[in-house]
Amino acid sequence: MQRMSYLILRHLRQELSAPEREELQHWIDVSEENRAFFVQCTDEGRLRTQLQIFGKTNTDEGWKRFSATHELPEARVLRMDNRKWMAAAVVLVLAIAGVHLLLRRSPVPQPVAVQQQDVLPGSSRAMLTLADGTEVPLDSAGSQVIAPGIIRQGGQLQYGTTNTVTSYNTLTTPRGGQFRLTLPDGTKVWLNAASSLRYPTAFSGRERKVEVTGEAYFEVTRNASSPFRVTAGAGTTVEVLGTKFNINAYTNENSLNTTLLEGAVRVSAGGRSATLKPGEQAQVLPSGEIGVVADINLDATVAWKNELFNFRDADIHTVMRQLERWYDVEVEFAAGIPERRFQGEIQRNLPLSDVLEGLKNTGIRFSIEGRKIVVRP
């Protein structure tokens, strides 16, 4: 594998000789596993993500150490002005091949993601509980008619407007799952991992009311005569007419946060209330107090909906809580973990080891043991 990693890197650097090109092509043609490895290493979208993660890596120094360690010929210096994303290629290929430690600025090895097995990212899956208690597993494969007026198309559940009898359904995502839902009024909901939404199969009366646990993003269809209300947590209610907003109501977070992207919402809890403007976030504390924070980074707030992790000055515990939910793993912290803040954006469709690789330059070590991340100083 070390030889093939070297050839793939030379392919990306456009330095393959004719014999090397033939050798690489022969290896690719031997098996589908080899072909998949090659495609994974040369996918430009993934390379760009790695460039964001490893933008400060000294790739020329890393390449020299890699060549020397494996008794390979010295490669010429990259013309980085023409191939800026090649830095990511060097890191990515060596990381996939299991020799990424050679790319550090310091030659002293520091194990980062030592693993017995990798953990794949979450996917579109959920459980729909109908009014009679029937449970219907949902995923993104194909489509199905679940009941009159209820259709699943890929990873999205759609309710029609034909239902006249109001009954309540519950959509629940496990850790490692997410799902999309279109309610009978056309309101669109994105449900994050380890979350649930209880809602009527038909909206009638003077209000539209749903209940959420965990995290959800809403794009509410405007109807001035029927306000849309979301209840979350212990007595927190968000009232809207037509708007886009995100609710994070995970019980292991420090506060219940409602973030407004468009329109206006009123957040009520414990006899208090606050009206938000776009770009503001209402933070409901366990005491019932409501604080409003302006100029929230909206990209970071809804990154999960766009298949991203987006960390803005996040501590290690905040980061690990997100990984726990998305990869369905447990996290164990050793004593003496240093205080570090994390900045950056990483795709959520990467294996867990790739994400941990992106966190390695903080002086914190990670290992994967089954379905557990062990964090060490």
Care to describe what's here?
There is one protein chain. With 377 residues, the chain is an alpha+beta fold. The protein has 2 domains: 2-109, no CATH class; 110-377, Jelly Rolls, CATH 2.60.120. It has 9 helices and 25 strands. The protein has helices at residues 2-12, 18-30, 32-42, 44-53, 59-69, 86-97, 298-301, 316-327, 352-358, and strands at 113-115, 123-124, 126-129, 135-138, 143-147, 150-153, 156-159, 168-173, 177-182, 188-191, 195-200, 208-219, 228-232, 236-240, 244-249, 256-262, 265-269, 272-276, 281-284, 290-293, 308-314, 330-333, 342-347, 365-369, 372-376. The chain has a 19-stranded mixed beta sheet that branches. It has a 4-stranded mixed beta sheet with strand order 1-24-25-22. Strand 9 (177-182) and strand 10 form a beta hairpin. Helix 1 runs antiparallel to helix 6 (86-97), helix 2 crosses helix 3 (32-42) and helix 4 crosses helix 6. The longest helix is centred in the N-terminal third of the chain and has 13 residues, at 18-30. The protein starts with a helix and ends with a strand. The relative contact order is 0.10. The model is unreliable at 54-63, 69-85 and 94-116 (pLDDT under 50).
